[in-house]
Design a protein that fits this description.
The structure is a homodimer. By secondary structure, chain A is of the alpha/beta class. Chain A contains 13 helices and 12 strands. The first copy, chain A, folds into 3 domains: about 45 residues, 434 Repressor (Amino-terminal Domain); about 130 residues, 3-Layer(aba) Sandwich (Rossmann fold); about 130 residues, 3-Layer(aba) Sandwich (Rossmann fold). The first copy, chain A, is elongated, with a radius of gyration of 26 Å. At the A-B interface, helix 4, helix 5, strand 2 and helix 12 of A face helix 4, helix 5, strand 2 and helix 12 of B. Strand 2 of chain A pairs antiparallel with strand 2 of chain B. Chain A binds a DNA duplex through helix 2 and helix 4.
Chain lengths: ~350, ~350
DNA sequence: GCGTTTCGACGAAGCGCTTCGACGGCGCTT
DNA sequence: AAGCGCCGTCGAAGCGCTTCGTCGAAACGC
């Protein structure tokens, strides 16, 4: 493998001049630059990443601490990872995968100290997350995807659960629905401090109350069976239910199956709006679900950009961003009826 | 950040002794080793990855060239990536993501020359793939997930499509089915040189012929609509069809929807066996699909292990491995009937 | 015409580690 | 008692690059 020294010899210049020509840190005359470029091309020269990293104290590597991917298929996660890797690549960085859960803060610290990564992207942040503290103390640039409980002064990008749930409820209410329930993620996720479960619940409740409606929600395990059971429990609690907001992909399929088995038509008798889901998942249902897509790719891109702005202070640091999910029409949402085919009445007085 | 020199000073030994204590390359007395370990613990020392890499010419990084993830949700892919990252981590390696398609062979070569990775894992290899040639010529250790057309002397791990399709057909034939069709991936994947489409078709045809049955298969676009259309075309071609082998997740959902709409019961009138699919996808259907799960996690683990055995020649190099998909019972496969509820007859003479 | 900038290029000192050759002291043999 | 080998340790030479200080020569001012 050709070294910079080889290039220098061939171009009849000193090693340092080659370095300056490559980095542009100091001016190099056009004639010299051309000779150097020719030499590099002839030799197929590529700078050695390790040497560069050692000398410059910059590895050009970003680390992505990503979730265990145990629950669910991770369509959004895959989308996110892919987009983050692309964006890193476009900016001359590598993306390395660090599979660490919330409890492995010390492993994260050790790895960070090895100087392998210039910055860290942290996915699926828990409400209280030691990994974030470790990164903060270590002084490594980092960006959270998601947010801890208290997010002041901690760089992050996240889904805007408030707006997403409000948009979802608003959409259904506009169609005349008044009795709407949320099929949320499981109690287990809550105990793990999984933030989306909290934020969706809060957002849904707020959105309902803001419209003078009574929120009803259930934490449901991530399984089709749990989804089936949930249907019964929800209908017992509120028989007048005409719409469901679901943010639990696996359970949603159980919900759909159970409704169909009970002869409750989708969307005739019951509308289903699946939120924070991944592209393609809605299409797998019959009828195809109306969904609100999680902005996985966008978060990946913005997360990396934000992180890079911290890594090389040159770029201006952007404020924290929240992105709502986007409504994608399907065939599982329709105007509300009273069960007799007549559209529901107007809004109650607020 | 503490350096090895700091540790040496604190432990009252020379720099090189610390290095030997850490690597075990040369013997170090117990007393000295203890002093060094104490010093490292006191200082919270972690060896610098770049310096180590430069001096040893080993980065402890493996690169994963992964597919664009455009088509489909990539459940299997996510599983694979996750398992590969875990296995790398367990062996003290980092996994970096290199998003490059088949056409970007020169980018791959440049990156390899930068010495960032000690080895390369190549996913979704096409039947003819320049990236493989580039890696071969560069002399970098690599392992393919999947296989090029000619696989002799090229390290790889892959799904055993032959056994998977044979198991699938065998399972259905054991249940009395005689008229079985394959819903394959699209013509577009064939044109991209996507190997699984070929290998599944070959395997299915062979499995059918080996049992004296006439193979019937269709290349179907990756969309529910295409799946719906396929049903009509297949039934036109062979009205006596009682079972479908599908290896196109998205299309499968269309197939199921169309069958149900036509009043063809699953599995009463038509059995569906979804092969090379990812865990959880089957559960999303109603009834839950009987599937043959792609061994994503296993391939990830074996791929990394194989690659590592090439990277540090110490481990013995294993022969190439093919792993079949495993049958996971669901509710979409049942014994064949003649449409009148009676089981089908025995096997025809071979 | 000579001092003073300015520009472009050079040499050398690291970055923090691995690894090779060497060497002192110990226990053993003869 | 002298010689030998071996174990544990040390010093120094890089690995391939970045970056700082410097310096010669061309360009400029008065």
């Amino acid at each position: 493998m050709a070294t910079m020294q080889d290039v220098a010899r061939r171009a009849q210049v000193s090693l340092s001049t080659v370095s300056y020509a490559l980095s542009g840190t100091r001016p190099v005359s056009d004639a010299t630059r051309r000779r150097i470029e020719d030499a590099m091309a002839d030799l197929g020269y590529q700078p050695n990443a390790m040497a560069r990293g050692l000398a410059s104290r910059r590895s050009n590597v970003l680390a992505l601490i990503y979730p265990a991917m145990e629950k669910g298929l991770g369509g959004t996660v895959a989308e996110f990872v892919s987009s983050a890797a692309d964006t890193a690549r476009e900016n001359g960085y590598h993306l390395v995968l660090w599979p660490f859960r919330t409890t492995q803060a010390s492993e994260v610290r050790d790895l960070v100290r090895q100087g392998m990564a210039d910055g860290v992207l942290l996915m699926e942040v828990a409400l209280d997350d030691d990994r974030v503290d470790v990164l903060h103390e270590a002084g490594v640039p980092y960006t959270m995807i998601g947010r801890t409980r208290d997010v002041t002064d901690r760089p992050s990008v996240d889904i805007d659960f408030g707006r997403t749930t409000d948009d979802a409820v608003g959409h259904l209410v506009d169609l005349g629905h008044r009795h709407i329930a949320l099929v949320n993620h499981s109690q287990a996720t809550v105990e793990d401090g999984y933030a989306p479960t909290f934020r969706a619940e809060e957002g849904f409740d707020a959105a309902m109350r803001a419209r003078g409606l009574e929120p009803l929600s259930l934490r449901v395990d991530e399984s089709p069976e749990a989804g089936r059971t949930a249907v019964g429990r929800l209908l017992d609690a509120e028989p007048r239910l005409t719409a469901l907001v679901t943010m639990n992909e696996i359970a949603t399929f159980g919900v759909v199956a159970e409704l169909q088995q009970r002869g409750i038509a989708i969307p005739g008798d019951m509308s289903i709006l699946s939120i924070v889901t991944s592209p393609g998942v809605g299409a797998m249902s019959n009828p195809p679900l109306t969904t609100m897509h999680a902005p996985g790719a966008e978060l990946g891109r913005l997360g990396v950009q934000k992180l890079l702005s911290l890594v090389d202070g040159s770029r201006p640091s952007t404020p924290n961003v929240l992105i709502p999910c986007a409504l994608e029409p399907g065939s599982s949402v329709a105007p509300a009826t009273h069960g007799d085919g007549r559209p529901d009445g107007g809004l109650p007085a607020r």
